[in-house]
Amino acid sequence: MSTGNSWTKVDLLKHKSTLVVGQNGSGKSTMLDAMSFALFGKPHRNIKKPQLVNSINNKDCLVELVFQIGSDEYKVVRGIKPNVFEIWKNGTMFNQSSHAKEYQKILEQNIIKLNHKSFHQVVVLGSSSFIPFMQLPTAHRRGVIEDLLDINVFSLMNQVLKEKASLMKESIKDITYKLDLAKQAIDSQKKYIRDITQINDEEIAAKQAQISDTEKEILSLQEANTDASNYIEKESSKTEEAFKSAQEKLQSLNQYKTEFNTSIKAVIKDAKFYEENTECPTCEQKIAESVRDEKLTNAKARAKSLQSGITKVDTEMDAVRSVIESQTELMNIIREKQGIINSNNQTIKRLYSSIQGMHSDINRLTAREGDLGNANSELVEMNENRNNLTEEKISINEELSYNIAMSEMLKDTGIKTKIMKEYIPVINKLVNDYLQILDFFVHFTLDEGFVETIKSRHRDAFSYDSFSEGEKQRIDLSLLFTWRQIAKMKNSVATNLLVLDETFDSSLDHDGVENLMKILYSLDDDTNVFVISHKGEILENKFDNKLEFYKQKDFSKCQDFSLQAA
Length: 566
Description:
The chain is an alpha/beta fold.
């Protein structure tokens, strides 16, 4: 790590616990910015990337980060002015021919298996730029857990399937065009044969008529398949979007109803006060009768208005539930049509096989006609070509149907949700275990939509925002340690590094600090904890080592001290 005009090396494996201290602006957070920049190309703090460059040198910003995964040693080198981005494995640099974004994907998805958002949930907890898990949008919450459970690969697989499906649809269009040309060629060849032959054999005519009827049956089945496919393509995404939108709206309406009910309770409470009290309990002054009447009248009006709002919300919820039911019916229809397509394809195969047999019979009957030998041979080849094209189209359609089915499984509502359901109880147990260690006795649960429910001992329901900053921080810490545990269980993100940036300086009281230290002491021996704090004089005896940052001639310097742990 370079902080100024000279290199500063920080060994993250030297001690199990390290206290990082220094005055404001001395460069303590530079260590985090350096790690974040090396791994993700962006600073840890909420600052712009050019601000990482030292304003005195105004160039040559460079970070080298060395780490191990198993028996392999990696080094990431990243710089600004000039721009540098290198990834090394066991002394060999990765090929840099790919685009920088693809190069970054290799680092995040294949090596560290961690993105920038997950990095701030598993490795670093900071008071300045950290956005707690509970304040993340639902999609980002889901993304964090997908990274931890190492199931984002299903999203990548789904994308590959979608791209493959798009290519198959293009192939089907191309084959359909070729089939049209083949049909025209066959029709022309049949006309040629009819023109040069006087054969009126009833058996041949009957077989030709049978072939024609069979072809019409095939065409009818193909048209039915086309209609069914068009319906599936048209309605599938629209139905899914409408279903999802209705569910989201129902959730919002439930929230509105809860808020209305809460407001009614508050109004009833105020009305009850003025009904039961003629004097102010605080100042013991008499409350004027006119004031009481006015308050009660206003409360009744407000309660009536709120009740009317609840009625409207209930009506709208019924309408939304009706939409959900109708969309569910549509999805059932889609599945039925897909079954029809598969059945029709099997019938088409059988009918084409029958046509081949009838053509063989006709060829046998007309073989004595030497002049028509070549023409019939060409017709057979044309039919074989058409049959091959048809079989290829059927095969691609079957594969496309399989791809669509697999894509449905790989959606967020499919296999990923099933895996997450298995881990939700484990996550909730771990969070509550850590909350108890931190002396915060509430019952915390996340549902499958990653929405929290928090209840007190008395079963009173709260939201995350209901709590004080100190209580929120206890929840954030519990989630941080839970994510690390889950990552360790799943072996998705193997990190022995934990950095707490000014966590001890914010909202934790004395008991909170002591309880947090209990958790830190209980971590595995291979876990290396770095605590950035302004409370050096209070925390110093609790850590094995101390890094002190200071300014010297406007450059940040770092001094390493060995401490006796408490």
